[in-house]
Amino acid sequence: MTETHVVLGTGSVGAALAAALVAAGKDVRSINRSGLRGSLPDAVELLVGDVGDPGFVAEATRGAAVAYQVTQPAYTRWAQEFPDLQTAVIDACAANGSRLVLADNLYAYGDPDGNVITEDSPQNPHTKKGKVRKAMADAALAAHAEGRLEVAVSRPSNYFGPGYDLTQNMVFARAIAGAPMQWLGPKDQPHTYSYVPDVARAMADLGTSEDAWGQVWIPPVGEPITVADFSQAIWEAAGQSGRAKVQAITGIGLKALSLVMPMLKESLEMMYEFDKPWIVSSSKFEARFGWSATPLPQAIAESVAAARGAR
């Protein structure tokens, strides 16, 4: 009998994850609140409801061998809503005997001060969102340690890639139009990025393995690259010539925009990720699962194609 895998969320990673699980031969059930299928494969069953509703999520994950938590509240509502949402998911999976793969990020580590971030780096969050993320991951791993359910935690770096609206709209679509690409932070700092399809593939690998549980994993990431070099490669892949047009949103300009854009206001405390080198290692995952990040030229080409298709 084919295993059922439930993906809680249908954003860029959730949709790519559902596709990866279908390709792996799993029965896949995806959950969202909108009822819109977007890029979900036809083979995916779609349920509509609120993952933060304990009764709904318990029913939605019933019979699941593995659930993948990839949904989240609005960025401005993390502290108020995110912990309760995750608690509902953990309780549902524990009651249903489902394993759980959590989509986390690197906020819990705080400012690495130029050091390479690995799974075992010290966790010293100094931002409100970093503290929320650390508390949530700690709670999930505590539930694993207590034997309530099996949990694996995925911690990618900042995303780019098909379907991820932030970079698709601010970077790739603007490059296609010949307009300045908009980035948070200065142009000259090396930064490690995660590619959406790699993040999704890694979560599928975690959920279909037998030895990933009770651990934190950083999915495959590429080599660090500056915004200037990344932008030039995107500019050329988009068919433009000459020096790339780049708008680096920093300092006073960032603070001014944050007055009218709540998302940017919430990002102010996270600018340490962009104002200095942000270097991440995925060597643990690569050693265990035997693959590395999609080559950057391929990832850029696929992202440009996706942005063209979304216009």
Structure write-up:
The chain is of the alpha/beta class. The protein has 2 domains: 4-156 and 195-217, 3-Layer(aba) Sandwich (Rossmann fold); 158-193 and 223-280 and 290-310, UDP-galactose 4-epimerase, domain 1 (Alpha-Beta Complex). Helix content is 42%, strand content 14%. The chain has 12 helices and 11 strands. It has helices at residues 12-23, 54-60, 78-96, 128-145, 165-176, 196-207, 227-237, 251-258, 262-267, 272-275, 283-289, 296-310, and strands spanning 4-8, 27-32, 45-48, 66-69, 99-103, 151-154, 158-160, 181-184, 193-195, 216-217, 246-249. The strands form 3 sheets. A 7-stranded parallel β-sheet has the order 3-2-1-4-5-6-10, sandwiched between helices. Strands 7-9 form a two-stranded parallel ribbon. A two-stranded parallel sheet has the order 8-11. Helix 1 (12-23) crosses helix 6 and helix 3 packs parallel to helix 4. The chain is globular and about 55 Å long. The chain starts with a strand and ends with a helix. The mean pLDDT is 96.
| Sheet with the most strands, sense and barrel status | 7 strands, parallel
Helix content: 40-55%
Major sheet strand order? 3-2-1-4-5-6-10
N-to-C order of helices and strands: EHEEHEHEHEEHEEHEHEHHHHH
Question: Which term fits the overall shape?
Answer: globular
Helix run count: 12
Radius of gyration, taken over Cα atoms and rounded to an integer in Å: 19 Å
The count of β-strands is 11
CATH architecture of the largest domain: 3-Layer(aba) Sandwich
